[in-house]
Amino acid sequence: MEHACRKVVAAAGAAALGTTVLLAAGPTASAKQARELTPGRVGTLTVRQVEQGLKAREFRCVDLVKAYLGRIAAYDKKGPALNAVIHTNPHALAQAKAIDTRLGKRGKSVGLRPAECLPVVVKDVVNTTDMPTTQGSEAFKDWVPEKNATIIETLESKGAIVLAKTNLDDFAAAVYGISSLTGAMRNPYDVTRTVGGSSGGSASAVAAGYAPLAFGTDTGGSLRIPAALTGVVTIRPTVGLVSRTGIFPRALSQDTAGPIAADVRSAAKGLDLVAGYDPADPVTARGVGHVPAAGYAAAAKGGRLDGMRIGLVAGGLAIWGDQPAGPVVALLKQAAADLEKRGATVVPLTGPDRTMLGDSSVITMESRRDVDAFLKAQGPGVPMASFKELYDSGAYTPYAKESYDREIQVDPAALSTNLAYQRSLTERLALQDWTLDTMAAHDLTAIAYPAAAQTADLIGKEQAGLFSRWSENTGFPAITVPMGYAASSTGTQMPADIEFLGRPFAESRIIGVASAYETATHKRRLPSLPAIP
Fold first, then answer.
1. Domains plus CATH for the chain?
2. Which residues of the chain have pLDDT under 70?
């Protein structure tokens, strides 16, 4: 186990859960501060610690960025070779030096931007103009978009530094955690096991401490599956809260971007940074008036859950591999008891009808239409001009091909008369109504279930027990948070997450529930990674 220096964090558990601990002893400790900001010691820092350390001038931005880049170098292609990163940002150190220059000497009063010098990593389906955006595919390995995605523009305008672009399944079209460009990503808790997908690189990077905050995307579980398998926190926002402009699509009725972090407050801060209206993505007009004035991080205050009612679904949601008597469900039962100790009333529920849950996905029907529109909007330099050209290229893994073989058969010009698509839209409305009715009838604040009913499987196997469909098929928000560890088939202890589903635009409420659970249980443990010399 890699241990953080006690002078850097009071304890690994405290750091993982957002306790504010600064990096150095005081304003006269500049030489000591440089020593403390090493790759081996920054892996447990939270967003809050970065914010407060910079505000107090306890470290320079350039030293922080150097330490994280050193950590990526030590773990990603060497050592455990996690393969979570496709590109590191060649401009990151220059950006950090510019921030240090702007902030000036220690003690000078300078207004900090909301994400000043915050290192982030971003899934490589999000357009960036200073690094290639590969989509995880050989076909796009050298493509540099003409414009940044809206969330990149927003993050950088607020002072964040994009350290790296993270690995993924090709075009986000699978959940195996395998890219045709770079191969399999490896789980920090057991490198023979998958990180899931498609945002597997972002989740693995956070679990391994490459950055205090990452961003990924979720259409069919792509944030929450890897978060559960690597034991980190993620928020899938309500569709319409975060812009998708400049992000390679799967199906826009279900697509969203969202944050991944090691603790609830850091993830909530990530949502604060990217939530908002984007005229280039009209769906974000739905979120206008729903972002709380105090921000989402303010809801991550721990505390009790008195008066709150949490619905609990233990089984029936997985496509296959439910394991109702398995070790993950045993962890869920303990989580229910922990919620009750915090004052919540836990209400056992049966989940929605499996047919309604399964038939309400629109990915197969919308993918070709939305990919065509995205590629057309990218200008003449884009490697592929259409979904058909992409499909015919074969520049993706066999796992993505499983999806694309279905999607190529759909005529995007005939969706208005496509009965299967119309049925999916009808089932989607039915699932939304069923969920809202169930929450109203039982007076529920949130519904809880395991994010995945089984821990991470071996690399190359189809992950069993995925419970991810409820949030994406309704468009309602969900947050996952670590709930413990269970033995794998080979005896390694692998993480598992609990997921809380809420009403549309009720992110603050489910963040509050997750934060109360997190601070009461302190379930997250650091992965065993080799010490960095």
1. 12-521 (3.90.1300.10)
2. 1-35, 105-110
